[in-house]
Design a protein that fits this description.
Arc Repressor Mutant, subunit A; disordered C terminus; three-stranded antiparallel sheet; mainly alpha; DNA-binding; homodimer; 2 domains
Chain lengths: 191, 191
DNA sequence: CGACACATGTAACACGTTACATGATTTG
DNA sequence: CAAATCATGTAACGTGTTACATGTGTCG
């Protein structure tokens, strides 16, 4: 529901038309998440269906169709800003699921998975840092988003390191079974 | 694609039936993300459609329909584990979008938004910590997921604090305009 | 017997996403 | 003139999600 609410929030600043909404959404989030124009129109149609926005007449001379936010829409935005994002609202964390399953899937070298991810995360962390250095002090919105991603990436690296050390501890207690089949389960492991 | 890949990974451990997949998925991720049974069946149908799994005959005496992973499916799982989760793969960060938009939406008190979120995040951080204390040392998968969420929540709090101090700095330089309209644009702001 | 867990499945819808079609206007 | 940008829109599909229908077995 990010786009839906995002567009609605932009419409609270005043009447907008579709194409404009796309560029404003992208610039407001530092072009971090590119937005296909088509999606603006589908989303606007859904917002209209739900009575949160309303087109103002037909297309103007330049072919622009302007939308207005309704009172219902305004209430929706207010409630969006007033309500914190809960843990349960968020989509499932694909990386966490991947590692949790890698842990107990035979034939998968979880240490390798962790290492590969760590490298990738570190690289994107560098990219983000480079972007931040290049970013001006003026674009607060972009800095906000950039830093959100930096903090997340840092946390991810820390978590991966934490996983690795835990795995190392486990490995010492219970030697790795990955490639070399454990005698008692050799038949099962074979493919 | 988390569920899709998750179920596929479970099927790589051996033949499974739908109901079983749900409980294994939930226990493998510490019941963090409850999974509607119906979704297992829709996902299985899609996996079958794409040739990644294959039902083994009809339902057995207990009405169970067992599924097997195919070679294509096995390749898909391997590629899933081998490929890191990139930044661009992730869904848009709703919280980041919200704050970025709150920053420039007139009439929205962004400091309040940050504070509300901070409180909520802190509370869920406490819940998670409590869960971790209660969790046994044995369930590695759950610990993994739990700690992922803890690290994320901690990062979120740090980020929110960072935002707040930046806002405080901005506020000192450029007093808040929220309710009082800026003279030169008063007409536009009026509704 | 009634409630509950086990077990499968379908219909309907939400949002997000892309590819495509169409046309006006600007600009090198 | 050709290419790019501006501008709208639709069709089609993907995953995720819920609500519902259906039936068996078990246990207090």
């Amino acid at each position: 529901m990010s786009i839906r609410h995002g567009l609605l929030a932009l419409l609270e600043r005043g009447p907008r038309y579709g194409y404009q909404l796309r560029s404003e959404f992208e610039s407001a989030t530092g072009t971090t998440w590119p937005l296909n124009v088509g999606q603006v129109y589908t989303t606007l149609a859904r917002l209209e269906r739900d009575g949160l926005v309303r087109p103002v007449g037909e297309a103007d001379a330049d072919g622009r169709v302007t939308y207005l936010i309704t009172d219902t829409g305004r209430a929706e935005v207010a409630s969006w800003f007033a309500t914190p994002v809960q843990r349960a609202d968020r989509p499932r964390d694909e990386l966490a699921i991947k590692l949790a399953l890698a842990l107990t899937t035979p034939g998968v070298d979880i240490r390798a998975v962790v290492q590969t991810q760590r490298t990738a995360t570190l690289r994107s962390l560098q990219d983000l840092t480079r972007l931040k250095v290049r970013a001006g002090e003026d674009d607060h919105a972009w800095l906000l988003v950039l830093e959100a991603m930096i903090f997340q990436a840092e946390a991810e690296v820390r978590w991966l390191d934490h996983c690795e050390s835990r795995l190392a501890r486990l490995g010492r207690l219970e030697p790795i079974t990955e490639q070399a089949p454990v005698p008692t389960r050799a038949r099962e492991d074979a493919r």
